[in-house]
Amino acid sequence: MKYERSCWRLILKKVTVGVLLALLYSTQVNAFEINDSDLQKKGYAGEAEAGVNLATGNSDTSSGHGRLVMDFFYGKWRHNTDFEANYAKDSGKVSAERYYASYKVNRDWSKNRYTYGLVTYENDRFNGIDNTITTSLGYGSRAFQNDTQTMDIELGPGWRHNESSDGRDEGIFHLGLDYTWNITSNASFHQTLSSDIGQYNTMSRSETSLTSSIWGPLALKTSVTLTHQTHPSLNDSDDTPEHLDTVTSVTLLYNF
Which domain of life is it from (predicted)? Predict the structure, then answer.
């Protein structure tokens, strides 16, 4: 029995090392080499990602994650859509269920300045976010750019509607940051930060991700998403959720 376990550990180590080497030394052309001007000429870009986790035996858990992001370009206008779903079950009971969708439009006024409009929808019944709709209009700027890195910042007023039992509609002030670092032609780091500041509740979100090309348009993405609320609303069980919620995912990503 001990011998079999040792063999399996050795096989797992070799497979892990092989995958890491493939990720580090792959030289296939991929989406990380496409810049903004190339995307504007193409007219659109998108990525779809999916991940599943199953465990049986002493524990019976399952979880799934899916996301679709699309960008469309027309002249000085850029349209972005984002659809995301997370679902998990533990011992036959649903333990996580979140749905998110957003639409954003940017209008460029110069190389580094733009205005934006943003609408988001989110439903996370375990986190006190019940059919929450947030809108925002404001100003954006490309604060930093070189051959491998870009950073955009945004700010503007908005409004939030929350249908939770003790949720409140209120005006908010939106702050956003989007940072991308193309580490190599096969690996990129992406960081987004946003904060919708309200008098009753301030909702902030951070997503940190590392994407490594596997082959052509396929890539492996590892991400950590943090959601923090200063005054979370009651969830479906009429319990007060934790202020900080963390989701870690490893997904297969397809660029097109």
Answer: Bacteria
Please say whether the dihedral angle defined by the alpha carbons of residues 189, 173, 121 and 87, taken in this order, is positive or negative: positive
Count of CB atoms situated within 10 Å of the CB of 68: 16
- Position 165 scores a pLDDT of 72
Rounded Cα distance, 76 and 101, in Å: 24
- Which residue type does 53 have? N
Q: Specify whether the CB–CB gap between 64 and 87 falls below 8 A.
A: yes
Domain 30-255 has CATH 2.40.160.40: yes
Distance between CA 122 and CA 224 in Å, rounded? 18
- Sequence ranges of the domains in the chain: 30-255
Q: Is the dihedral of CA 105, 110, 111, 112 positive or negative?
A: negative
* The two structure tokens encoding residue 43: 């007219």
pLDDT tens digits for 204-246?
Answer: 999 999 999 999 899 999 999 999 999 887 766 667 778 898 8
Quick check: 141 and 147 in contact, CB under 8 A?
no
pLDDT digits (tens, 9 = 90+) for 151-173: 999 999 999 998 887 778 999 99
Confidence of residue 45 (pLDDT cuts 50, 70, 90): very high
